[in-house]
């Protein structure tokens, strides 16, 4: 019995020495709060059944990643896209569930690579008011509408500030309504959110998309610098799982599934449970 006790002592000592080294690898947070643009179907939108949360392709992707790495990720509604970004900057939420890469955000967020989807920003115009379009220069002298706080890449954003008349409006519904009322010549918006909203409003037969896209921006998950959960283990785990899912084509399938989901919700009478 004495020999067994002597053998156990160095073993226990070794375990006690290794535990402090192993602990950080498990991360320091069991739950993460994410938010994002609530007016961005099928990527993200507010859940009609539970208005405190966001649903959509980006939310499904984050929740799948969370389950894989053993972290509970909840995607919550925090207000407008501008408010969501502010919540992330201040560290009151941990993640943005989808954001394009801009120099300003790079100062406040760690981007999880690789990007999981590309969002083409296109021109939506009235079918009875088409105009020649081959590139940015063809937009000079025309009045356009965009959603407030939307970015279309540093190149186009700089060109637009210097050369274009773009009105920022609070919702895509309002932008499309103004377009049909001939108060603007085009609406600049990502293709899938534009498609989902125009279909819901019954405007698809009145609108047309002009090619080529104004810009194409990659969508990333972004982790706030000021998040108390931002550590090397979490960044590494998020990147590893995102790499696996992107390579398997999961984000695109989730996008297509949620386009169907969004359309089905719009056909339901008010108050009908969505899940």
From TrEMBL:
Transmembrane segments: none annotated. SUPFAM superfamilies: Periplasmic binding protein-like II. The keyword Disulfide bond does not apply. Residues 30-261 form the Solute-binding protein family 3/N-terminal domain. Pfam families: SBP_bac_3. InterPro entries: Solute-binding_3/MltF_N. Gene3D superfamilies: Periplasmic binding protein-like II. Keywords: Signal. Residues 1-25 form the signal peptide. Belongs to the bacterial solute-binding protein 3 family. This is Transporter substrate-binding domain-containing protein. It comes from Pseudomonas schmalbachii. The lineage of its organism: Bacteria, Pseudomonadati, Pseudomonadota, Gammaproteobacteria, Pseudomonadales.
């Amino acid at each position: 019995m004495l020999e067994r006790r002597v053998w156990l002592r160095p073993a226990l000592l070794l375990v006690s020495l290794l535990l402090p080294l192993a602990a950080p690898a498990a991360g320091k947070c069991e739950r993460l709060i994410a938010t994002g643009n609530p007016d961005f179907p099928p990527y993200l939108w507010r859940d009609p059944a539970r208005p405190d949360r966001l649903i959509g392709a980006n939310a499904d992707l984050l929740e799948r990643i969370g389950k894989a790495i053993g972290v509970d990720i909840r995607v919550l509604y925090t207000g407008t896209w501008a408010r969501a970004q502010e919540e992330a900057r201040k560290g009151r939420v941990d993640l943005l569930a989808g954001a394009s890469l801009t120099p300003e955000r790079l100062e406040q967020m760690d981007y999880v690579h690789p990007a999981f989807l590309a969002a083409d920003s296109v021109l939506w115009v009235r079918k009875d008011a088409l105009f020649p379009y081959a590139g940015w220069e063809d937009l000079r002298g025309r009045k356009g509408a965009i959603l407030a706080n939307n970015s279309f890449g540093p190149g186009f954003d700089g060109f637009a500030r210097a050369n274009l008349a773009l009105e920022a409006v609070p919702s895509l519904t309002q932008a499309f309504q103004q377009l049909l009322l001939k108060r603007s010549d085009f609406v600049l918006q990502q293709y899938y959110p534009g498609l989902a909203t125009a279909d819901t409003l019954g405007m698809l037969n009145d609108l047309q998309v002009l090619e080529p896209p104004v810009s194409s921006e990659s969508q990333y998950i972004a982790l706030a610098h000021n998040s108390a959960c931002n550590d090397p283990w979490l960044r590494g785990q998020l990147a590893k799982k995102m790499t696996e899912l992107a390579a398997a084509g999961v984000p695109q399938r989730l996008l297509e599934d949620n386009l169907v989901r969004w359309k089905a919700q719009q056909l339901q009478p008010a108050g009908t449970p969505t899940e």
